[in-house]
Design brief:
rod-shaped; mainly alpha; about 110 residues
């Protein structure tokens, strides 16, 4: 009799814990995906910065603009989930490019 009265409560608790565990797994997957996207973006930006530094040091033509490269633009779009984030990313690239231009002119 006592076991029969406790069983539904234990089943409800087990279901609640199962739902919590599922939510934690989903959050972990989202964090891992975001980390991978951020690492890829950082790597791409570091590569672009290195190319720009080499071009400045060698006094050769500047590398193609980040936004003029369809592959890099596609990578930025894929890594950005909102239009606002995409615009912010492009604005940051524009500011960085203007800073590089002004420092190379001096």
């Amino acid at each position: 009799m006592l076991v029969a009265s406790v069983t539904p409560a234990l089943a409800e608790e087990a279901e609640r814990l199962r739902a919590d565990l599922s939510e934690v797994a989903t959050l972990r997957a989202l964090q891992q995906d975001a980390e991978a996207r951020l690492r890829a973006g950082l790597s791409s930006l570091q590569e672009a910065r290195a190319e720009l530094s080499r071009a400045i040091a060698d006094r050769t033509d500047l590398p193609r603009r980040f936004t003029a490269d369809p592959d890099r633009t596609a990578a930025l779009i894929a890594a950005t989930e909102t239009l606002d984030g995409f615009a912010s990313g492009l604005a940051a690239l524009q500011v960085a490019m203007m800073a590089c231009r002004s420092s190379s002119v001096m």
